[in-house]
Amino acid sequence: MPQVSHGSVPNTIKEFYKPKDELILTCNAGYAPSSIVTICQSNRIWTPEPICTYVSCTIPRLENGYYTIDGIQSENALPYGSSIYPTCSQSGYTPSHSTARTCQESGTWSGSDPTCITKINCRSLPLVANGHYDGGSNNLPYPVNQTITLICKTGYYMFGSSDTRTCISNNTWSANDHTCVRITCNDTNDVWHESITAYPEIGFAEVGTVTLNSSFFHLQDGSLAVNCSADRKLTWINTPVFSRLQMYILAHLSRPLSVVVRRASSVVRKHFYLNMFSSKTTHWILTKLHRNDPWVVPNQSCSNGYDRLHM
């Protein structure tokens, strides 16, 4: 009876075997027989020779991919009990199933052959008012984990926690709270002046006009027009020059009225006559820009029957 490494033949009571007697070879786990049956020949040799060889499995072919063992690509035959995992080599593809395959005693792999199929992806870019998304290559569909960036059109800016969105595994883009908001100018630092009482509400590249306090200031040069810049600041189109009006207090005490006009360093006395018969005190503000300019007199009527003030 032949001796077999890593295997055995069934026990038998025969001490001798005659030609054409057969034996069935059994190998240990992880080994396979060169032939299941061996036959005794007339020359007293068993043919084919009963040998148990180590089982190995040839790596199967995977179109557009490969198999890995312990995360490393393998192309060599692997021993019995080894497990391999399918991986797709092309971006945008994924295995139809990722179940591990194990080398069996038969020298074949367990399970079925996977294929590399189109990966789950986002097939269209989301819409956003007054802007668009830039995905780099802009080649649809976008694979999972692809990131896109919000670009707002001229005159708008991104408002939100982040300007990006990511394609996630349910074929949709990750949520985001960003929007494209119209640029409006609310920063008046560059155009502030004590003479201005109101600023226009305008958008990017629009032109507006500030409101001048004409009772106390005069526009000497430049313009009151302002422009809205991309950084949300109001800027002058033609920088103005303001001058402060000189103010004078006119007070009448009795009739005929003696008027005292006060200035910073001198007192000018003028006489005004009012068609009135009352001792009630009334005040007017007279203004002029330069010393030699004419007086600007309020165009108003006196209360309680007073006539208009005449110079």
How would you briefly describe this protein structure?
It contains no helices and 33 strands. The chain has 311 residues and is mainly beta.
What does this structure look like?
The chain is mainly β. The protein has five domains: 7-54, Complement Module, domain 1 (Ribbon), CATH 2.10.70; 56-118, Complement Module, domain 1 (Ribbon), CATH 2.10.70.10; 121-182, Ribbon (Complement Module, domain 1); 196-244, no CATH class; 246-311, no CATH class. 0% of the residues lie in helices and 38% in strands. It contains no helices and 33 strands.
Q: Which range does the strand content fall in?
A: 35-45%
C-alpha termini separation = 149 Å
Q: Oligomerization state of this entry?
A: single chain
- Tell me the Rg in angstroms: 50 Å
How would you describe the shape?
A: rod-shaped
- The mean pLDDT is 77
Low-confidence region ranges: 248-285, 299-311
Helicity, as a percent range: under 10%
Number of helices: 0
Note the topology:
Blueprint (H helix, E strand, L loop, with lengths): L6 E2 L13 E3 L1 E2 L3 E3 L3 E4 L5 E2 L4 E3 L1 E2 L7 E5 L2 E2 L4 E2 L3 E6 L4 E3 L5 E2 L13 E3 L2 E2 L8 E4 L7 E2 L3 E6 L3 E4 L4 E3 L12 E4 L13 E3 L8 E3 L1 E2 L4 E5 L3 E4 L5 E3 L4 E4 L1 E7 L4 E6 L4 E6 L9 E7 L23
Antiparallel strand pairs: 1-3, 2-5, 4-7, 5-6, 8-11, 9-10, 9-12, 12-14, 13-15, 16-18, 17-19, 19-21, 20-22, 23-25, 24-27, 26-29, 27-28, 30-33, 31-32
